[in-house]
Amino acid sequence: MMSASRVRRALGGLCALVAFAIMTGAAHAHPHVWITAASKLVFAPDGTVTGVRHAWTFDEMFAAYAVQGLPQQTKGVYTREELSALAQTNIESLKEYAYFTFAKEGDVGRQKKQKFNEPIDYYLDYKDGNLTLHFTLPFRTPFKVTKLALEVFDPSYFIDFQMVKDHPVELVGAPANCKMGLVRPTDSSAPQQKLSEADFMSGENANYGAMFANKVTVECP
User: How far apart are CA 57 and CA 199, in angstroms?
Assistant: First the structure.
């Protein structure tokens, strides 16, 4: 088990930085960590959607901080095994923030929030200075999709999520009639206000980051 000091040096969990900003009020309405994401919606043979598979690549500065002090057999190289404790720390920390992944099913105005179980199949990869967290979020109850809305974002906008340019979202094993759409956030979609993170998480600004959400829609008529 990693000691408390080792966890802090390694990362202390991705969301430890978010918590620090909230406590100090040091952050403002702009991101401090950048993630390039790719996602897959996984379907079972019976046509139900079973989960969301994420791959999140952190910006180089954050990646360098995250691996600082971690033991390694080869300089500049980190194996999946050497990163396993850090991956677990990340996943455990993300739970408090609902893994920055939000799903609703149904027609607008009658949508039902879909809950997730804890992540499975999680691990970290480190290559050429890029640190990528892979994990699968299983839906608590698999369901047949009619109109699914999936959003990936940080409500506090401490973390900026951008989907990769090519193949940002894929449907794996989906019925042939399913269609997928993606709306990306734009920098002009919301004013850059100077508000503390504490302000973001309360009152009318509690969901500020939603204006920068990546919005995925799946329809299986």
Answer: 28
Structure tokens at 145: 């999709």
> Alpha-carbon distance 54 to 41, whole Å?
9
Q: What's the CA gap between 41 and 131, in Å, rounded?
A: 22
In this predicted structure, what is the pLDDT of residue 15? 53
Dihedral (CA of 5, 11, 16, 17) sign? positive
Report d(CA 57, CA 197) in Å as an integer: 23
Answer whether 218's CB lies under 8 Å from 177's CB.
no
pLDDT per position as a tens digit, 91-133: 998 998 999 999 999 988 889 999 999 999 999 999 988 999 9
Asked if residue 160 lies in contact with residue 166, where contact means CB atoms within 8 angstroms, the answer is no
Q: φ, ψ for residue 111 (rounded to 5)?
A: -75, 145
Query: For the segment 183-205, what is each residue's pLDDT rounded down to a tens digit?
Result: 998 644 444 444 444 443 444 44
CB 33 within 8 A of CB 160: yes
What residues pair up with 138 in beta bridges, in sequence order?
A: 51
Give the CB-side neighbour count of residue 149, counting CA atoms within 13 A: 13
Place of tokens 């994990």: 135
Report how far residue 197's alpha carbon sits from residue 125's, in angstroms, rounded to the nearest whole number: 30
3-state secondary structure of 6: helix
Query: What 8-state DSSP symbol labels residue 16?
Result: H
